[in-house]
Structures are given as structure tokens and as C-alpha cells.
Design goal:
The structure is a homodimer of 191-residue chains. Chain A is an alpha/beta fold and 191 residues long. The first copy, chain A, is built from six helices and eleven strands. The first copy, chain A, has one domain (2-190): Rossmann fold (3-Layer(aba) Sandwich). In chain A, the strands form three sheets. A six-stranded mixed sheet of chain A has the order 5-4-8-9-10-11, with helices on both faces. Chain A has a two-stranded antiparallel ribbon with strand order 1-2. Chain A has a two-stranded antiparallel sheet with strand order 6-7. The A-B interface holds A 15, 19-24, 27-33, 35-36, 58-59, 62-63, 66-67, 69-70, 73-78, 80, 82, 84-88, 100-101, 109-110, 112-113 and B 15, 19-24, 27-33, 35-36, 58-59, 62-63, 66-67, 69-70, 73-78, 80, 82, 84-88, 100-101, 109-110, 112-113. Strand 5 of chain A pairs antiparallel with strand 3 (29-30) of chain B.
Chain lengths: 191, 191
């Protein structure tokens, strides 16, 4: 997606250790118009697949999931990291390591919002090691829903998340709007 | 906003102690179409006020802020509760009590995303005690920006957040899409 590539080239910062700072676009400040274009671009890829629900993880996955959900006209559910007191009843619980916070984080989805046999598309901000995507995919499997694919805003292909997903048995189409092939030497190299 | 009132009447649950569960609409599952209508309805109120930026707080404020920002075509910034490692440089820091999590939470906005003299609209999911709204308003004041108003999805008027905002010196227009006037006796009474 050229508009997003241009913005990352202009505003992205390589903080080292594979950490990409794009706070001005995705994680802290949001350009709503660009976010809508992202959602539309993601929806365009999966439109023929009868997606019935989008699953994402808070926090940074919420905006691309909302805009993709708007374009596909399907409900969105975002996994919570902390259980709010309004969450009652059974939950699907998975854990994944946080790339930017260090520790393991919980991902919780109320069982009432993931239904058996539904076609679920996972949307997230980053695909790096694939561990968050795999945790979301395990939730879909636990709910006996059908995982039809995953759409991510930025893929860091050098962290081999696609391979990890396959190794975990999730052989699904994955679409990334922008692929970063290297962050060596302080650079941000996009495919 | 009638569509939202209807949904709250159908799906909202009064959990007691003033806690409203509307996870199926706002805090966990999202109906993107309804969320867009909410953003549009909020934007319609503030359209003449030359809004230049929207400020909200993660997590549940993000979706209404994004859709209002889309309708007004202005950038959105959401206050973070934990400092991500991508956040460098000076920040505005305020604290507010969390209604649904108990403890005090930090609200952090990188100084680079709040500019002096900018016209800022605050958007949030709930107006209850007004403490989160006031914390966001203090940030706007610290940044020497102009606070033009606040838009919230659901106001619990019996918790007197408007009065609190005035007592704190924030005499701004506040618009709520739905006002709940009482949650006594397990009911949800809307204006």
C-alpha cells in the first residue's frame, strides 16, 4: 500500500532491536483517513471469503480492525489484555509475549463473541514473530470457528512470523499492507 | 441518538454500583456501522468549531474518537496508560481513577502530539464522575492548546460529571449521544 509506505518512509524510526516507531501513524496518533484506506485495502483482499467476524487484539489492532470491519460490514471483537469487571461468563484465554512491553500478556475474549462455524478474519497492526497472531488463531480454533485468513498493517518479514504460523498448523492466507524486509544498520527497508 | 439508545435498551446490562455492561456494542465487540454513525453524530455537533485534533484515552475511547476524527477529518491522539518503549521524549502525564478497574491509571500523551494553540475536542466512551475527562482536559491545558468541547458516547448524568468539570474550571460544551439518568433498582433509564 503505497500511501502507507510513503508515510513510514517519512515518519518511521528504527529504534534498534527490530523496534519500529510509527507512533505518528498507528500506535498513538492516528490519521483517520489513512486508517480508512488501510481498512479498505485489507477488506479488498478478503472480500470474496465470506468473512463474518474480525478478531484483533487491543490496543493497536483496534483501529485497522474497525476500519476493515466497516469495509466488510462485519462485527469486530478485540481481545482484552486485562479482564474488565464487565466481563462475566466464560472466556477464551491465550498468552503471547509482548514485543514492546517485554512480559507475557494475556489475551481474553468473552466466549459470547466468538461463535462456532463463523468465518473469522484476524487483523492486527504488526506481524513480527507471529506469536500474537498464533495466540489469536488458537482462540479461533478453541471456539471451533473457521479461520479464513489474517491481515496485518506492517509485516517484519525478517522475523519469520509466516513460518511460525505454518509451524503452528495455521496454514492460512496472510496479507500485509507493507512488508519490511530489513531493519539492519538503522535502516527501514520495505519490499 | 436513537439507534444507540435502542441497542443499549436491548443489550445493556446493569451490573450494579453504576456499572453498565455494553460490551457487545462499545468495549469488546464493535458494530462498525453503528460506530460510524456515532462518530458522525458527534462530529455534527462540533463541526462549526474548527476542531483541529481529537484527544481520547485508550482503550474504549479509541473507536468513537477514530470515527469522529474521520467525520471531521482531523488527527486523533489517544492517551496511553502504559508507556510503550516506542514512546521517547517528553510526555504529558495525568492520573485518573479507573471506574471499571479500581486503581488510579496514568494517562500519557507524547508532547509531540499535542500542540499549543490547536483546537482540541475530547472524545470518550463514558462520562461518569468526569475524572477521566478532567484529566484529559488538564493535558490540553498543559499543552497550551484550546479545549473546544467534549463528546461522549454515554453519559451517566446521576454521577454529576458535568458539575465536576465546571468545578475544575472546564466550562466547555459537552455533548453525549445517550444520557442515562438512573441505574437504580437494576434499571437503565435513558433520557
Amino acid at each position: 500500500m503505497q500511501a502507507l509506505k510513503d508515510r513510514i518512509a517519512a515518519e518511521g524510526q528504527n529504534l534498534g532491536s527490530g523496534i519500529l516507531k510509527i507512533d505518528s501513524i498507528l500506535n498513538h496518533q492516528i490519521d483517520p483517513k489513512l486508517m480508512f484506506e488501510m481498512g479498505e485495502a485489507m477488506a479488498a483482499v478478503f472480500r470474496g471469503m465470506n468473512v463474518q467476524r474480525i478478531l484483533t487484539a487491543e490496543i493497536s489492532g483496534i483501529c485497522p480492525a474497525l476500519t476493515a470491519g466497516y469495509a466488510l460490514n462485519v462485527p469486530v471483537v478485540y481481545a482484552r489484555k486485562l479482564k474488565p469487571i464487565t466481563m462475566a461468563g466464560p472466556v477464551y484465554l491465550e498468552t503471547a509475549p509482548s514485543h514492546t512491553k517485554g512480559a507475557q500478556v494475556n489475551l481474553l475474549v468473552a466466549a459470547e463473541f466468538l461463535h462456532p462455524h463463523e468465518n473469522v478474519l484476524i487483523v492486527d497492526d504488526f506481524l513480527a514473530s507471529g506469536k500474537t497472531l498464533a495466540a489469536l488463531a488458537r482462540m479461533v480454533r478453541s471456539a471451533r470457528a473457521n479461520l479464513v485468513g489474517a491481515g496485518v498493517v506492517v509485516e517484519k518479514s525478517f522475523e519469520s512470523g509466516r513460518t511460525y504460523m505454518q509451524q503452528q498448523g495455521f496454514d492460512i492466507p496472510i496479507h500485509s499492507l507493507v512488508t519490511i524486509t530489513s531493519m539492519d544498520d538503522g535502516k527501514i527497508v520495505m519490499a
